[in-house]
């Protein structure tokens, strides 16, 4: 595993154990594939439809341009309050669960929290999914995420026809229909309310603009917007892909804080100094969370939520040793391996947030750290994810002291999203 290149990407990156340096990265082994990697084959038929994650060519370019305004800071600002509300619901639940003897498994709780948050931000939907286990739509969303992961683990189901004819495939299609029906209903109702071209201004006076508002009002230079099918695909992509990856990032972040109490305490001190007497986070606080941000980035280095990506080369690539890859080659990048490569990172297994100080970051190759990929196809929602991680960490550290459960260390399983086979178990101590 090693190099990934997309349109506009010019750097090659080493795999773990490869040769070269951060300033002159050289691929040691290129894993060639005659067919798309299994994750790509599966995601082509995933629950989110043909959204930004899957699209190519002019249609991808059009969608990217239309979606970008939805992640402008003016749109993201009001989301902070909603994120904080969702985090507080999770923390209230944890207060009811904690005992001195028993640890709490975090991942499921964090996943529900990020889903709750993203539903509010995507289409102002108050799901109450963290407290209401009977919501059929929320259960469908969680089931679909599990179905995709189970399919990846079952090689026979990588074949589309085999999966289509199987009982699992039938369950998958049924769940997709239910999820799409809900999204279609929300889109129809919202389009009706936005018939007046001045409605956006009216809405903005009543509430925040959500992701769906932005998509429905988006037009390209030809005054062409997104079709209903495209709208559904992009809303579903934002929701399905966004909540799972952010849940992974937050869960591993809390685990790292538990493993390293000195860094946990330093983050808590910084957050208290920033917030003062306040018990919530505001947009303007993010830029002041210097050390907290370094800890988040170091967690993303050691535990990237998406441990690998694949790309099709849009142009031939020649490496420094003379080997070449033709246009159209499918290449994959082991982000997890890259982030732990000793030729790129000194003592890569050590948790050291100072790697991300301004001076150290300036000396490092720009493609040495890829938690959100890079190039034109980088993660469009990376600022959204970073904001949510900051909110979750800040509010958690204000309320709890975290420590690991030595009897239940996490067992990493690299699927589409980096998870732990046995969950992430931490002891939580309520702070006075």
Q: What is the terminal separation in angstroms?
A: 48 Å
Estimate the mean pLDDT confidence.
83
CATH topology: Cytochrome p450
Largest sheet: 3 strands, antiparallel
In total, the number of strands is: 9
CATH H-level superfamily:
Cytochrome P450
> What Rg, in angstroms, do the CA atoms define?
22 Å
Q: Can you count the helices?
A: 16
Unreliable parts: 1-42
Based on the structure given, which CATH architecture is correct? Answer: Orthogonal Bundle
Helix content: 40-55%
Number of domains: 1
Apparent shape: globular
N-to-C order of helices and strands: HHHHEHHHHHHHHHEEEEHHHEEEE
Quaternary status of these chains? Answer: single chain
Class from secondary-structure proportions: mainly alpha
CATH class: Mainly Alpha
Q: Report strand order across the widest sheet.
A: 1-9-6
InterPro entries: Cyt_P450 (IPR001128), Cyt_P450_E_grp-I (IPR002401), Cyt_P450_sf (IPR036396), Cytochrome_P450_Monoox (IPR050196)
GO molecular function: heme binding; iron ion binding; monooxygenase activity; oxidoreductase activity, acting on paired donors, with incorporation or reduction of molecular oxygen
Organism: Chelonia mydas
Cofactor: heme
